[in-house]
Amino acid sequence: MKPSAFDYVRPLSLDEAMEQLAIDPFESKVLSGGQSLIPMMNFRLARPERLIDINRVPGLEGIVPGQDRVTIGARTRHLAVQNTGLQGPLGSLLRTAAAQVGHLPIRTRGTFGGSIAHCDAASEWCLVARLLDAEMTVRSTRGERTIPAADFFQAIFTTAMEPDEILTSISLPALDDHHVTGIAEFARRAGDFAIVAATAAVKIEDGVVTRARVCLGGVSEVPWRSQAAESALLGSAWSAGAVAEAAAAAADEVDPPSDSHGDADYRRDLVRALLPRALNTAGAGS
Amino acid sequence: MTRSTVPVRLYVNGDRYDIDIEPRRTLADALREDCALTGTHLGCEHGVCGACTVLLDGQPVRACLMFAVQAEGASVRTVEGLAPDEETLHPVQKAFWEHHGLQCGFCTPGFLTLVTGYLEEHPEAQEDELRDVLSSNLCRCTGYQNIVTATMSAAEEMRG
After folding, report:
1. What number of CA atoms fall less than 13 Å from residue A92's CA on the CB side?
2. Domains and CATH numbers, chain A
């Protein structure tokens, strides 16, 4: 339960961090909050030769609202997201999701971008990023590029980032006040990774759904955008019944894994139950 | 694989510790092995049990999930730093004592630091919120009810 030895580098600027990472990218890991990496190192599931600690690099934290998009610095701690004063349906979604990330002492250290770069299919931030078609900005000594969420999450613990790239910020669309957002998840104990999680952002104008986004966790290797649920919602009159139908469509569509946490049928049941909870229509009449 | 040690300066409970450690030394191990502050306990060593919780610049963190070298320049507070003096218990310690918030005591340092850190920032916290905070740490003896009672009692005393 002790990590293997590594060389420790603590750059004081992003340029220095990128240069350090470029020296030996395949044997190096970027250390941000460390709340996933360090457990893996303690178990020796990860044995990086070098750690590039970016905790002293300026400019990587904060939530900055823009005209159409909101930019979140990759090293923004979960607790800072939970406490954000960001207005509107996006702010509400971020606060609700952050409160479900691990426990308080994990949220004080763990980071928004670290969770996304780690790419666990049940992670709240991977779900939110995929839900809202987030754009991930990554940098290396070779330059900067922006990767859309649809391409970013490739497989469990595998993203489109190259080993020499550092995730620096994530941008999300600002959602206008016609949106309803939410996230709900089920785990056996508070703070555990969700067995299944559902998140949604639905735009309602004059009582009709004009845009629907639904994303599920725990049903595939990477966050799953449910086209079945989205098509079921789109154009429908906004009601608890419409959400229940969309949840049923999503449950039929997914092909979840079976493991010791729950078999495929159980996970489908959770999808049916959780999407209405995420949109706060569970228990309401149709 | 042997790596050289690096000098690290830690500030723990207001005292300065100049230690030489490998970068892989976790903060929890450095506190116990290099600073001789064995009040911080190590249970699971992967961030689940919370026994090693300490306050880093006032915020609760898992000391097994950061390296000591990362704590340079920060203020660390451990269970040894809660009581104001040798004769007086911190209100949270007193409440755990009075309400039987511990049996074997292994998890207690983590609960005391967690609760102290939270109540010092959120003295008005209500039971639902405190139960959510307490879910961070594991206790295998008490069944938690007395820990909740002790925490509520400490909150009341700290509000004054």
Report:
1. 16
2. 7-53 (3.30.43.10), 63-173 (3.30.465.10), 179-278 (3.30.390.50)
